UniProtKB/TrEMBL annotation:
<protein>
    <recommendedName>
        <fullName>Flavin-containing monooxygenase 1</fullName>
        <ecNumber>1.14.13.148</ecNumber>
        <ecNumber>1.14.13.8</ecNumber>
    </recommendedName>
</protein>
<dbReference type="GO" id="GO:0050661">
    <property type="term" value="F:NADP binding"/>
</dbReference>
<dbReference type="Pfam" id="PF00743">
    <property type="entry name" value="FMO-like"/>
</dbReference>
<keyword id="KW-0285">Flavoprotein</keyword>
<keyword id="KW-0274">FAD</keyword>
<dbReference type="GO" id="GO:0050660">
    <property type="term" value="F:flavin adenine dinucleotide binding"/>
</dbReference>
<dbReference type="InterPro" id="IPR000960">
    <property type="entry name" value="Flavin_mOase"/>
</dbReference>
<dbReference type="InterPro" id="IPR020946">
    <property type="entry name" value="Flavin_mOase-like"/>
</dbReference>
<dbReference type="GO" id="GO:0004499">
    <property type="term" value="F:N,N-dimethylaniline monooxygenase activity"/>
</dbReference>
<keyword id="KW-1133">Transmembrane helix</keyword>
<comment type="similarity">
    <text>Belongs to the FMO family.</text>
</comment>
<keyword id="KW-0560">Oxidoreductase</keyword>
<keyword id="KW-0503">Monooxygenase</keyword>
<dbReference type="InterPro" id="IPR036188">
    <property type="entry name" value="FAD/NAD-bd_sf"/>
</dbReference>
<dbReference type="GO" id="GO:0005789">
    <property type="term" value="C:endoplasmic reticulum membrane"/>
</dbReference>
<keyword id="KW-0256">Endoplasmic reticulum</keyword>
<keyword id="KW-0472">Membrane</keyword>
């Protein structure tokens, strides 16, 4: 029998972890505490303890070509950015297509995961699960923790003096479902992540007035980016990444600054991030600028204190009357079923090698997936983590396996789940893990064999299919998927044009590509 692996959770990470186990000939059992798969993306009207909670209008932040699993493109008629129901539909199709259903035990909660007494030699774990009130104990050779980080709300009320005497209603964004609670009310949204801005925009349709309080500010990107292409297909290209990562820091920041301020000047809209937050994860919203411009939403600095029926902001003398407050203050990372000593979480950080492996285990048989919040789709990243992890479990320890017991200087500290602060190095991280398993595409190698593909990979979006061109888990359809990504992108929107008129964007890229290549050859820089 193959190596037995316990997968905790059947959301995005758990599904791909289960699939990667099967690909590598391991024996996965996936435990899901709720009655269905989909994790974060499965909307329920009522809020369940220990499970993420969505509001009905949530739409994916990354486009379908950039957030697909690398060997399973979205159906071409799916919209470019996905409403939560469509994303759930995609996850169900993925589970169906790769036969994951029979590996998933629904309604089964993981209560505890503990090292076995002989862990130092076997690396095995005792896993206790509970279903229908009955507990069962299992032995597993390895564990993949895919329980996500959007279940335990972070609501630091002690940071908001006077909240105890505030007479209106307040709640964490996790509780939010429908905007009708804001009907005719004066609303304050505290915090400016994606949820905060979404909720403010929805509230402004029915509220008397909406204010967003943010101490740090934020960059705002629209899903609709240059020339109407999705932001991530323009932003996450190998060329752009190469430029960003090789420019000196101030220049790189200047470039990002210039790019995001092209749509509107953030300072004029009260959104300019503080110096220290210049590389924060951007917020994605297409409506906010026009809502600020039409007075529906006002941006204010951080909250100084609450009064009975009003709030005072820093550096603003006057009080602002409000009726209802939504705290969009994010989530805590927690692993209630693990011992503190296995994954240390301090200040919303967990110290993990490459954001995946606890650093001090004698055997690398436990991994945490999907804790990284990349500037781009989570699916390709967590899938890549799973591909690497399953190979480490199998003992293909050739390269990139986690150092066992090593000093803190080399540990990749995981920043809060909201991102390696807006880490534009999404691609670098993907390439690093891909190189560990031998799946990193070689642009130069391809240039001679398949120049058209090489150019598309370098100048076009870094879509996940690139990581299936070679190495373990190679997928025959990868090349085709890359060359047809713009067709799938245009299919759902270009619905009033004669068939056969194709986009000029890729062909323009090619011309530019050849010119640049010539320059490289001539000047050899």
């Amino acid at each position: 029998a193959g190596m037995r692996v316990a997968v905790v959770g059947a959301g995005v990470s758990g599904l791909t972890a289960t699939k990667c186990c099967l690909d590598e000939g391991l024996e996965p059992t996936c435990f899901e505490q709720s009655q269905d798969i989909g994790g974060l993306w499965r909307y329920t009207e009522h809020i369940e303890a220990g499970r993420p909670s969505l509001y009905p209008s949530v739409i994916s932040n990354s486009s379908k070509e950039m957030s697909a699993f690398s060997d399973f493109p979205y159906p071409e008629d799916f919209p470019v950015f996905l409403p939560n129901a469509r994303l759930l539909d995609y996850l169900r199709r993925y589970a169906e297509h790769f036969g994951l259903r029979e590996r998933i035990k629904l309604g089964t909660t993981v209560v505890s995961i503990r090292k076995r007494p002989d862990f130092a030699t076997t690396g095995q774990w005792n896993v206790v699960t509970e279903a229908d009130g009955k507990q069962t104990s299992h032995v597993f050779d390895a564990v993949m923790v895919c329980s996500g980080n959007f279940s335990e709300p972070s609501l630091p009320l002690h940071c908001f003096p006077g909240i105890e005497r505030f007479q209106g209603q307040y709640f964490h964004s996790r509780q939010y479902k429908h905007p009708d609670v804001f009907q005719g009310k004066r609303v304050l949204v505290v915090g400016m992540g994606n949820s905060g801005v979404d909720i403010a925009v929805e509230a402004s349709h029915v509220a008397a007035k909406v204010t967003i309080s943010t101490s740090r500010g934020a960059w705002l990107l629209g899903r609709v980016f240059e020339h109407g292409y999705p932001w991530d297909m323009v932003f996450n290209t190998r060329l752009a990444s190469l430029i960003r990562n090789n420019l000196p820091g101030p220049l790189s920041r200047g470039l990002i600054n210039y790019t995001v301020n092209q749509r509107f000047n953030h300072e004029n809209y009260g959104l300019q991030p503080e110096k220290s937050c210049l590389v924060r994860e951007p917020v994605l919203n297409d409506d906010l600028p026009s809502y600020i411009l039409t007075g529906r939403i006002t941006i204010k600095p951080g909250v100084k204190e609450f009064k009975e029926n009003s709030v005072v902001f820093h550096n603003c003398p006057e009080e602002e009357p409000i009726d209802i407050v939504v705290f969009c203050t994010g989530y805590n990372v927690s692993f209630p079923f693990l011992e503190e000593s296995v994954v240390k979480v301090e200040n919303k950080h967990a110290s993990l090698y490459k954001y995946v492996f606890p650093t001090h285990l004698q055997k690398p048989t436990l991994a945490v997936l999907g804790l990284i919040r990349p500037l781009g789709g989570i699916m390709p990243v967590t899938e890549m983590q799973a591909r690497w992890v399953t190979r480490v479990f199998k003992g293909r320890r050739a390269n990139g396996s986690p150092p066992v017991c090593q000093n803190a200087a080399q540990i990749g500290h995981v920043p809060p789940p909201r991102g390696i602060p807006g880490d534009p190095r999404w691609l670098l991280y993907m390439d690093t893990l891909a190189s560990y398993i031998g799946a990193k595409p070689s642009v130069l190698g391809l240039l001679c064999r398949d120049p058209w593909l090489a150019l598309t990979i370098f100048f076009g979006p870094c879509s996940p299919y690139q990581y299936r061109l070679g190495g373990p888990g190679r997928w025959e359809g990868a090349r085709q998927a890359i060359l047809t990504q713009w067709d799938r992108l245009l299919k759902p929107t270009k619905t009033r044009v004669p068939a056969g008129s194709s986009s000029s964007f890729p062909s323009l890229l090619t011309v530019l590509g050849f010119l640049l290549l010539l320059a490289v050859v001539i000047f050899g820089f």
